[in-house]
Amino acid sequence: MLVNDIRVSNRDREAVVVRLSVAASEGRLTFAEFEDRSAHAYAAKTYGELDVLVADLPMLARGEAVVVRNRAGVARAHEGTALSFLALAAGWAWVPMYGHLHVVLFPGVAGVVFGLFGLRANASHFWRALATLGVLGGSLCVALQVAWAVYHLLD
Description:
Layout: H1 10-25, H2 31-43, H3 47-54, H4 62-92, H5 105-121, H6 125-154
Helix pairs in contact: 1-2, 1-3, 4-5, 4-6, 5-6
């Protein structure tokens, strides 16, 4: 299979549209050409179709492509940070309430849920560690809650 026949992702299409946008802002493309090529980029299915759209344009500087990629992940990074903090707080909120095990199931479950979402949303080892601690704390809380319930059912 040729590289030109491999299917493209949405990220690949967006990268081509960014190149077209830069070319239009530099005056290399007219607005009509930019609109036409952008529409074709969003409809493209293979790398070959995308390559045709930018074949007559210069390559972007390396730094420009990195900036575009980083901007796309900013919202997700902030979301993951908040989820990691929530997981840690909820996962261990039950510790001061340990004597009242009948009410601490909710923070434990919240710690597990927020922690799992935080793990999915984060690439940073630090934030993943916080989310993992939240999952562990929440899991311990749920396990103690189940043990407490079984103990009182058998009593």
